[in-house]
Protein 1
Amino acid sequence: MCNEAARRTTLGLMRDDFRQIRIELTFPEGLPNRGEAPSIRITDSSVIVRAAGDAFEMVQRRWSWVGPTKKPVYNYRSEGRRFGNSGSQGRCLIPLDGFYEFTDPAPGARLKTKWLFTLDEQEDRPASSLASGGEARAAPGLFCVAGLWKGGADLGKGMTGEAFTMLTCEPGPDIAPYHSRQVVLMPRASWAGWLAGDIPAADLIAPTPAGTLRVARVP
């Protein structure tokens, strides 16, 4: 599953993009100190957006906590789970503009083949619900992965603070040739509903529609 992602969109553009759909971000811990990040890996910190009372906040947290098997929980199956919000855990969005998958090595090669997935926003394609929905974007190419954050003793192995994981579901047609699962890309129109936590997760989570993503082999 996805264990590396990318975010090249600046903080200012991300904030403006959320503002366009009436999600006004607050920064209770100050502006995140990690801006553009062409590579975000397990245990790295990255920005997430979550509900905080009647507001929405952007904070910076570690990607993955330690699970019962002592392995990092960086992806989490969404099927059959509700994912409500509380003081110690809840739903979040992980703003990105790319994520990577790996397939078995090509014949004669030693290393796995690395693929980069980004939004396909060609002019000859209809606008994806994950992207613009037809309107101008402050941050073209930005999308959000649905996630779960939590804190406290459940992080495992003596960890303190808070961490997040990315939710997964069955793969859409763009991803199925490369992996049997995909991270959940939340449609832009559902960002506020997902964060608020009052819409059942099963009503919002679905495989990505065909033609939404562009894939390129990473040299």
Protein 2
Amino acid sequence: MKKIGLFLMSEKGYTTLKGIIDNNLHTLIDLIVYGEDKDILNDYSKEICRLCATNNLRYINRKSFTKYGGSDANMLIAISWRWLIDINKNQKLIVLHDSLLPKYRGFAPLVNALVNGEPEVGVTALYATSEYDRGDIIWQSKLKVNYPIKIAEAIQQISKCYNELLLYVLNNLKEGKEISATKQNETEASYSLWRDEEDYLIDWNLDSHQIRRIVDAVGFPYRGALTRFDDKRLRINDVEILEDVVIENRTPGKVIFYRNNKPVVVCGRGLIQINQANFDGLSETALPLKKFRIRFS
């Protein structure tokens, strides 16, 4: 029977590990390597560690992985992982990537797919190669998206896809079966770029539906969509689309109305009402704002 090493991080990694334990497949695991992500509000690293300790699973932080000589597992599996993993000639590495490859290779694929309004999202299990997300596909699991949807809900839903794929892989390994795979169609490939603080900024020239998808896709557990006014930085957590009106001198980013102390902002097309917001770094609500004439940028 093959020994397995798991590389886990985020809620997806935690949920997948719990699924392995619930299905009594954790006896296959030789070592769990967990990672931390300072860019999200809860990276689930503590939850992963507690789950490992409770079930007597050997686990270490990724920074200690090489220090302890790695793992003698002959099958490595990476879930929601963002760092390179060195393997020896006797090891194979399977990656679970949250897009339907060959589309959205690369970084933040789920966020970018939701921003783009994709009708379906999913997870791909593939063999790793020297070029990221270009390996042969083992299996895919997908689900339809009902918009509007916030990223926290999308992560919960897509975690079921992770569980489905990993149980498929582990059950095959447990039975000693070889896991076959098929090559990707390069003519259908697309790439997904990494995101940083600038990508949280709202472009009010976009239409209201695009802006809402952005707000929903970068909310908790991420930092939240960002806009600026009067040298202040406002994190927008929840918005509502309103019916457009005729504006003779349309200027995206300007507040046009207040409804129940909530500002209504002009977009490139359509109107957005800000329902929940806080000043950057503060947890309490920023609403109602103290003046009417505000231009967001």
Protein 3
Amino acid sequence: MVSLNFIFQTIILMILADNIHTKSNSLGFLRSLLASIVVVHHAFRLRSNEPYFWEDFFPLSFGTLGVYGFFVISGYLITASFEHSSSTVNFVWRRLLRIFPAFWICLLLTIFLFAPLTHYFTYGSLENYFTGFASPPLSYFYKNIFLSINQIDINNIMQKNVGAGNMLGAVFNGSLWTLIHEFRLYIITALIGIVAFYKTKKYYVFYIIYFLYVVVHYADPVEGRLFFKLYTDKATIILPIYFFAGSTLYLLRNKIKINYILLSLAILITIIAHYTGLFYYIFPFSLTYILIWLAVKLPFKDWERKYGDYSYGIYIYHFVIQQSLLVAGFTYLNTISFFLLSFCIALFFAYLSWKLIEKPSLKLKNKFS
């Protein structure tokens, strides 16, 4: 009797075909690249509202493309992490170590470094810094401690400086909003994996849930929230599709052929989808193949082992650094100079974060093995 697992794999393989014949990849480099293009996006959006040529022919901004790419790669890597974890507890522990310590330090540095500097430039002194406003520094930590950003400003600093070229509103760190959505997908992966991975390895359970979510979502992109009720608006409800597209590709990694023909087909389908109004529906799948093709073909293997993983640090620090630079008076810089300056500072903090926080934390990953 033909199994459901075979049927689902056959349907997908009709499009993707054969094998990835490599274990080494450039995913670490791609993560850093995606983080960098998010920095570019926010440099333009915070520095000015001038359009840049990219959006004249592509329907997504740099920032949106970067976030979608992050979720694809996360889906791929997180599914791999779950499969290789000794237990569900060990998997959750690894995810906690990877995301929370660096995030908490970022919040603390915002409270004790970036916010005091911007407070001084805004109000002329540090008087009443901790107690004089309705959105005080310490509450910025405990209200945001579990990734959900419930306090977006400190001492109304960004609200007061909205006119200083800030086109994204009174948000101290506008990059952090995606973290809670990604972490929820880690938990959902674990819940699905308990059924789909252990002992029987019946991956079709995973495919069924993903397939049903895609159908429900595309039938009604705004209200179709049958499976993921935590994704409650159009900006976030598409994120699980990118994440689980990466997950599905990981599960089929030994059956997917990486070649120029399929790459050309993915690019062509993306272009056609753009001009036929189907881009929203097609791009999660074409982007997934393009990213994995790049991960296999680019000559940046073992990037993280050689250089470290600075992508997370760049992502969580760059926005608050850009905001601080604007408040400090660096509005005279042109957009490119502003990007380069903020990127270099963010890279410095990302380096420290990796060396002092993230890498040491990961040494504890087998504590609950």
